């Protein structure tokens, strides 16, 4: 479960928008302040830890660079909800421990709505509007991977257990 304020973006938010290419040579820490700056120059300072990004169609299209989800994770984004994701971004986000779910009703959510996502049940509760939306379910093995901080942390945990 994750709970946080909604931060709204539209359709076709690609990896160049999420993580502008002119900052690719910087470390994640140095690049993160520029996250989403092409569409919202204040995003990195306004987004609070736990913020839930809500977007339209095709979130994360473009290149496969991990800096896009890494920058969002560095800013402590709690989750991303979108109508649908570019597949490679979707998997990169999960591999980095950033939960992502698809929701056909994402456009019903407004800026700063108080959201609570139940990943196992596939439900988003909008406390600000008294509404509930269905979203994709994250299976137990993916939830475990996210809980452990991503694929690398999960594999380290698995190896240590042997």
What is the third-level CATH name, the topology? Aconitase, domain 4
Question: How does the major sheet shape up?
Answer: 7 strands, mixed
Taking Cα atoms only, what radius of gyration do you get, to the nearest Å?
Answer: 15 Å
Strand order of the largest sheet: 4-3-2-1-5-6-7
Question: What is the name of the CATH superfamily?
Answer: Aconitase, domain 4
Number of domains: 1
User: What's the mean pLDDT score?
Assistant: 95
Structural class: alpha/beta
**Global outline:** globular
Number of helices: 7
Catalytic activity: (2R,3S)-3-isopropylmalate = (2S)-2-isopropylmalate
Protein name: 3-isopropylmalate dehydratase small subunit
Pfam family, one: Aconitase_C
Domain Aconitase A/isopropylmalate dehydratase small subunit swivel: 37-98
Topology, element by element:
Elements: E1 2-8, H1 15-18, H2 28-31, H3 43-46, E2 52-55, H4 67-74, E3 79-82, H5 87-95, E4 100-102, E5 114-118, E6 123-126, E7 131-134, H6 140-147, H7 151-161
Parallel strand pairs: 1-2, 2-3, 3-4
Antiparallel strand pairs: 1-5, 5-6, 6-7
Describe the structure.
The protein starts with a strand and ends with a helix. It is built from seven helices and seven strands; from the N terminus they run E-H-H-H-E-H-E-H-E-E-E-E-H-H. The longest helix has 11 residues, at 151-161. A seven-stranded mixed beta sheet has the order 4-3-2-1-5-6-7. With 162 residues, the chain is an alpha/beta fold. It has a single domain (2-161), classed as Aconitase, domain 4. The chain is globular and about 45 Å long. Residues 37-98 form the Aconitase A/isopropylmalate dehydratase small subunit swivel domain. It catalyses: (2R,3S)-3-isopropylmalate = (2S)-2-isopropylmalate. Its EC number is 4.2.1.33.
């Amino acid at each position: 479960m994750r709970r946080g304020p909604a931060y709204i973006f539209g359709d076709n938010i690609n990896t160049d928008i999420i993580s502008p290419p002119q900052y690719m040579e910087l470390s994640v820490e140095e690049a993160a302040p520029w996250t989403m700056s092409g569409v919202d120059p204040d995003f990195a300072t306004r987004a609070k830890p736990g913020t839930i990004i809500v977007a339209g169609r095709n979130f994360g299209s473009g290149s496969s660079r991990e800096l896009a989800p890494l920058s969002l994770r560095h800013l402590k984004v709690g989750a991303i909800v979108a109508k649908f994701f570019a597949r490679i971004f979707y998997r990169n986000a999960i591999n980095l421990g950033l939960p992502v779910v698809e929701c056909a009703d994402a456009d019903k959510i407004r800026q700063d709505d108080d959201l609570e996502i139940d990943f196992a049940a596939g439900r988003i509760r909008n406390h600000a509007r008294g509404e509930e939306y269905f979203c994709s379910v994250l299976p137990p093995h993916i939830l475990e991977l996210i809980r452990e901080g991503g694929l690398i942390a999960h594999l380290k945990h698995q190896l240590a257990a042997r």
